[in-house]
Design brief:
Helix content: 40-55%
CATH topology of the largest domain: Spore Coat Polysaccharide Biosynthesis Protein SpsA, Chain A
GO molecular function: glycosyltransferase activity
Organism: Limosilactobacillus reuteri (Lactobacillus reuteri)
Domain Glycosyltransferase 2-like: 8-134
Protein name: Glycosyltransferase
Radius of gyration: 21 Å
Low-confidence stretches: none
Strand content: 15-25%
Number of strands: 12
Number of domains: 2
Mean pLDDT: 91
Keywords: Glycosyltransferase, Transferase
Structural class: alpha/beta
CATH architecture of the largest domain: Alpha-Beta Complex
Length: 319
């Protein structure tokens, strides 16, 4: 690859033989200014066979083989081997629109004044949920944070393009050994962001995030997953709160914590862990009492349900 690398695309792979071909067919392009790094994280199925098949066709695709260390470690390996000015993370069970990669490449090649580029996403599960960006838009960090807290933008790293210089300068890596790793990575990166650019979905297309019930984070709930999810999301919200002086955004973040606690409360009841459900309930009402909150109707409903006896909730959840 003689040309200067503009964009490095990092694809962690672990036992995704059912989805990998579609992913690679949609993202790979014969472009010497794009570097593709596929990190095989100890796959035991035919994922590596499929990856090798594509490596023979694409000179700008390299494969890193490592023992299974988890998604964070695989992404970190990709970061260490990336040489592009911009980094983009693609999950190997996802896919993109036909011209998506060309469009985002052309944009980052021609625009160098932004710190973070936000991308349009479609969540694919039993139905498609679009994160639509109807217009090209420049936002400051507070404006973008507000959209994240309101759920109008995704925390998944596949929904953004990151500047490698910021990642290297401040040694921003993924937390290894933890689930919900994006919740730790994105807020830390945002600390060093001044300008975010939203790309219009009409001009670039969509990234299709495949929501799989069998994935590690979405499979059957357990105490460990409830605890790790709540810990990651509270880290995220606390970190974002420290990054802003905007009172309204801080109130929104505290209100969002009620949603996080409510979800954990219900999940603990589902697995019949009543003692920890009671502890969550205490934290919920502590925040409710101590903070000035930006209440929406959803929070009102959740608060009413939190007043219900656990025995009644447990019976209804069981039904």
């Amino acid at each position: 690859m003689s040309n200067k690398i503009v964009l490095s695309i990092i694809i962690p792979v672990y036992n995704v033989e059912m989805y990998l071909r579609q992913c690679l067919e949609t993202i790979l392009r014969h472009n010497s200014e794009i570097q593709y790094i596929l990190v095989n994280d100890g796959s035991t199925d035919d994922s590596l066979v499929i990856a090798e098949e594509f490596r023979k066709k694409y000179k700008n695709l390299s494969i890193i083989n490592q023992e299974n260390k988890g998604l964070s470690a695989a992404r970190n390996s990709g970061i260490k081997n990336a040489v592009g000015d911009w980094l983009y993370f693609v999950d190997s069970d996802d896919y993109v629109d036909n011209k998506f990669i060309e469009n985002i490449f052309n944009f980052v090649k021609e625009n160098d004044m932004y710190d973070l580029i936000s991308l349009p996403v479609i969540k694919v599960s039993n139905y498609k949920q679009k994160i639509i960006q109807n217009s090209n838009l420049t936002l400051n960090r507070d404006e973008y944070t507000k959209l994240l807290v309101l759920g109008k933008r995704q925390f998944g790293v596949w929904s953004c393009i990151f500047r490698k210089g910021i990642i290297l300068k401040y040694n921003i890596l993924f937390e290894e050994g933890k689930l919900f790793e994006d919740q730790y990575f994105v807020p830390v990166y945002l600390k060093y962001v001044d300008i975010v650019y939203h790309l219009n979905n009409r001009s670039v297309g969509f990234y299709y995030y495949r929501f799989r019930d069998s994935s590690i984070t979405h499979s059957k709930i357990s105490r460990e997953k409830i605890v790790q999810k709540l810990k990651a999301e509270f880290f995220r919200d606390d970190y974002l709160s420290c990054l802003t002086n905007n009172t309204n955004i801080k109130r929104l973040i505290n209100t969002n914590k009620l949603t996080l606690l409510y979800r954990a409360y219900i999940n603990f009841i589902k697995i019949d862990n009543i003692s920890e459900a009671k502890e969550i309930k205490k934290k919920y009402f502590q925040i409710l009492i101590n903070e000035q909150l930006a209440f929406r109707w959803k929070e009102t409903v959740k608060t009413i349900l939190m007043f219900c006896p656990i025995s009644i909730l447990k019976k209804n959840l069981g039904d």
